[in-house]
Structure formats: C-alpha cells, structure tokens
C-alpha cells in the first residue's frame, strides 16, 4: 500500500509542477492573442473582478492532463476516445475565449464529444440496479449517456463565478474519487490514473487562480466537467444505484446551484440558462463575506458532501447518512433565508416566524 501511495503522489506532484509552470506561458499566450476577460465587456459585467485577466487556464489544465497521460497513461480505445473528446471540448473553448460563440454551437460540439466517448470508446450507462431490481436502459442507454456527459460538461461552467471556485470543487471531486479507489484497491485502474492526473493539473491551475486570480479557466473550464462525467461513467455505473450516485453526491454544490438557478429563472419567466447574480456565491457575497471566505465556505460544504460519500462507500454508512441529514437541514435553511430560489422566500419565512411567535405569546 505504501508503494501505491508513493506512485499516486508521484503522479499528482509531476502534473502539479507541470501545470503550475505552464500557467505562466498560458498567461503570456492569452495576452498575446487577446484571450482576455475584460470586465467592461457585455459578458464581463456578470463578473466580479475589476481588471482584464487571461482566460486560457483551462487549456493549461488540458496540457497538464496530456503531460500526465504521456508519463503515466496506457493506450487503449477508451483512452483514445477520452483524448479525442477532450480535444474537441478544449478546442471549442479556445474559440469561445477568443470570440464568443452562440451557446447552441458549443452544445453541439459537446454532444459530438460525448458521442465519441459513447460510440467509439464504448463507455455507456446501460443499467442501474437498486433495491433488488435491475433497470436496463436498452437502446435508450445511448441518449441517456450523452445527455449525462453534456450535463457534467456544462455544470462546472455554470458555477465558475469566483476566483478558485470551479478549480477547487473539481479538485475535491478528483481527490475524493482517488481516495475511494485507493482504499478499494484499484490503484492501477484507468479512473484512478485520470483522477490523479486531473488532481495535479487542477491544483497547479489553482496556484494562479485563487484570489486574486492571475488567470481564469475561461470556457475551457468545461474540460474539467467533461472528465468528471467520464470518470463517473467509468467507475460508478451499475451494479448498484448508490454506486452511481457517489460521484453525483460529491458534486452536490454545483448540482444544487444549477437546479436552484433553473427553478428561479422559470419562476421569473426567464430562460432557464439566462445569466443572473443569484447563484450560491452571490448569495454569500451578499451576506458581506469576502471572495476568499465565500469560496472557502463553499469548499467546506463540498468537503462535507465528499466526506459523506467516503463514509457511505468505505467505512460507516450511518455516519454518511448523518452528514447527509445535516447537509439537508443546511440546504433547507439556505433556501428559506436567501433569494436563491425566489425573492419572496425570506419575507415569507419571516412572516411565518412572526406568526409562530404571536401564537406562542397567545398560549
């Protein structure tokens, strides 16, 4: 086990150092070709930063991923499909960083990348077993897997609103999957190699992206989400429903934030993917937390989700369930006391509490 741990540390350290160094080059290249996030632009007005910032950090993560694959990966059809799909994701991300592309064209490329994984790599979510029953998706496995991959690809992009936020959440995911795989004795598996390579590459990016950020991931941030989707399909499809939802649990924060955003916008009669300033990190900033503290709070909540997944999978399901209950209470409290779903929610909660106080006094 000690040898396995040293091998894992070597993969993380090598990709971390490469990614950390390559980010300096990415910053120079981004400035040279004009891949800058300017807060005075129409799109930049949704951002919190005050100065123009290079946007090719996601490309740097991808290069770290390629470096790690060359040193530690093994060639296979599955790996080839991951490389091809990742290249497509990063390519459209670079184009979008240089000159914004309509969302429908980005989604189209993401679908094509997912199709490469499904039809060439043969990676499918074809069945799930739960409570003694097995559900086989049959021919529907193909569209279900494609939709799942596209959703994972874009969900990280939606939460990428503060320095260090998306990179930190993804790092927690990769680390958690690696911990679970390590204790289950799967150190040499493809998913372990992918998780460790991505962990090192993303941490190297965080060196430059944590507040105050000197580089952003840009639209190549979707590459991290794409690999998260692939890891989920590789490791946790079948044979049990809980196995599939382990990685979903680790992504609790971005999933909930996206779900709340869709509900919020539908209630307002807005398109579900229209940008606004009511995301989780905006709510915390509105409570007068600084950028750094806000990101650390979200890290902490995400670590709780990850810890629950680890306990539920490896050690003590009861502890995992207790953590899930605590998280559920936190989520309900947050919904009732913020405008993350509706502007009227805090007022209604206050009115209800006042009614309860009046009734108590009457009694």
Give a verbal description of the structure.
The protein has 363 residues and is mostly helical. It has two domains: 2-250, no CATH class; 274-363, no CATH class. The protein is built from 14 helices and four strands. It has a two-stranded antiparallel sheet with strand order 1-2. The chain has a two-stranded antiparallel sheet with strand order 3-4. A hairpin with a 2-residue loop joins strand 3 and strand 4 (133-136). Helix 1 packs antiparallel against helix 2 (57-72) and helix 2 packs antiparallel against helix 7 (190-209). The protein is globular, with a radius of gyration of 21 Å.
Question: What keywords describe this structure?
Answer:
14 helices; mainly alpha; 3% strand; two-stranded antiparallel sheet; two-stranded antiparallel ribbon; 4 strands; globular; 363 residues; 2 domains
